[in-house]
């Protein structure tokens, strides 16, 4: 018999209660732990994030050299750490939800995909060489409903999540068994119709920001 590894989140309940919101767990995979969450952001918060990000978007750059790449064809931006009241409130809720201190949080990222744009399968953690303070978990929050396409998909698990405004997908890759981490390979399917906005929060193993 194999023993299940201990996940970082307490997932016995069907909801997660944070200081200002009750978040429903509406779907899950146990190992690696993947949770589908509803009511992470209110519709008003989704609209605020899109509004704040709109004028600050750039073609997404990935990797160490920050090169423009066909792996990700969307546009992106990062908020400053707790740059205003709404960002701070959202970051605090996310940190409670992910069960990781805010000091371990990367800046909140916004991605915008137009029709035809996509994010090919990738790992969110860094694999090359000795990574000191690697990423350990991800929360992808959907800021709008996509007319068609744009699912977040996990090819190794044959599993896809349909974007829904205010909902999110959570996954973690902090397992000792690296095979489990590898199963979190994921991408964003091409947008067939409409557009897609997401906010991504990555958490680090150790302190990453100073508050
Ligand atoms: O857009 C998506 O569905 C996935 C986004 C993603 O993988 C990321 O931001 O790391
Ligand atoms: Fe990702």
Automatic annotation (TrEMBL):
Top-rank taxon, per record: Bacteria
Alphabetized UniProt keyword annotations: Dioxygenase, Iron, Metal-binding, Oxidoreductase, Vitamin C
Residue intervals of the Fe2OG dioxygenase domain: 104-205
Cofactor: L-ascorbate
InterPro entries, sorted: Oxoglu/Fe-dep_dioxygenase_dom, P4HA-like, Pro_4_hyd_alph, Pro_4_hyd_alph_FE2OG_OXY
Pfam families named in the record: 2OG-FeII_Oxy_3
Family matches, as PROSITE patterns: FE2OG_OXY
The protein's name in its UniProt record: 2OG-Fe(II) oxygenase
């Amino acid at each position: 018999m194999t023993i299940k590894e201990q996940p970082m989140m307490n997932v016995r309940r069907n909801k997660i209660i944070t200081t200002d919101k009750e978040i429903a767990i509406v779907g899950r995979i146990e190992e690696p732990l993947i949770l589908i969450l509803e009511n992470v952001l209110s519709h008003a918060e989704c609209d605020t994030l899109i509004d704040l990000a709109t004028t600050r978007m750039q073609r997404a750059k990935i990797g160490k050299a920050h090169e423009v790449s066909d792996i990700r064809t969307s546009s992106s931006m990062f908020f400053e750490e707790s740059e205003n009241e709404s960002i701070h409130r959202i970051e605090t809720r996310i940190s409670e939800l992910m069960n990781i201190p805010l000091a371990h949080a990367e800046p909140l990222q916004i991605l915008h995909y137009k029709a035809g744009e996509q994010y090919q399968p990738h790992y969110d953690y860094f694999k090359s060489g000795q990574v000191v303070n690697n990423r350990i978990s991800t929360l992808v929050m959907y800021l709008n409903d996509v007319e068609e396409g744009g699912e977040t998909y996990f090819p190794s698990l044959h599993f896809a999540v349909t974007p829904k405004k205010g909902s999110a997908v959570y996954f973690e890759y902090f397992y000792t068994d690296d095979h489990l981490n590898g199963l979190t390979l994921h991408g964003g399917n091409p947008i067939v119709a409409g557009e897609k906005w997401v906010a991504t929060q990555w958490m680090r193993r150790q302190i990453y920001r100073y508050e």
